[in-house]
Amino acid sequence: MARRKKGQPVHGWVIIDKPQGMTSTQVVGAVRRIFDAQKAGHAGTLDPMATGVLAIALGEATKTVPYAMDADKTYRFTAHWGEARDTDDAEGKVTATSDRRPTKDEIEALLPRFTGAVVQVPPAYSAIKVQGERAYDLAREGEVVELAPRTVEVHEAWLLDQPDADHAEFEIRCGKGTYVRSWVRDLAQALGTVGHVSQLRRTRIGGFTEDLAVPLAREGGNVHIPAAFEHLRPIATALDGIPALAVTGQEALRLRSGNPILIRANLFAKIAEGQSETDDLQGLTVFLQTSEGEPVALAEIAQGELRPFRVFNL
Fold it and tell me: What is the dihedral of CA 233, 234, 235, 236, to 10 degrees?
């Protein structure tokens, strides 16, 4: 006899305004308890000192997490010049100091070098795994962590303000895998000084923006979300940009059993509407739902068929 899963079959996205001091894992656990959900996950870690948009998937929405993680993100943050820290943020120990403070003109002159394809080494205190262990766990144990450089995409970067000589406020829009802490560390070095991130806020992940984010309320030792289910968003929320098609009840049954369906002429026409004439539709991912809007599957176009590779069991 199969064991009953703990919790309720709750499916959808909740956009949390993560408070400072909590880890992303702690927030996910709190949200899972609030909804009594069987399953939960998030679309991109925020450091404990960071605040802002943390998109949490419940139930079958966890199957769409990779699409949210691949989306562009926007961050607002403050760089503190003159101090390097082992974590590259305000929580670490000071490892070097400098008396040099960059000017507004010097900073803006270097921003083009730190946009586009940028090569950066992730911080030693990061969630990247090294031989099965988290880098931050190894770093906390005193081990020297050497992470390989990686190329990330920083689409745009702006200097917003310089409240004083020690601080500069920025905003960047970037792709998957970008570390703001590394960006500030490397920018500081290029400016002839050292620096770290003293404040960090994520304002957007794809279509998840801070105006949609709900704060966690605290009462005594408990965390809750007032009117929690009013903030539960559909599974498809993370699938912006993926063509959506309605299928019949019989087609939905076949798809949910893992079987392909033939692409009817009207379905093919709808898919082609959103593509340029030069696009090859082979391999295109399509989101399939019933006429009532209930998610059925994510499928790939192949040889005149829609072949499901991720099925939603609601």
Answer: -120
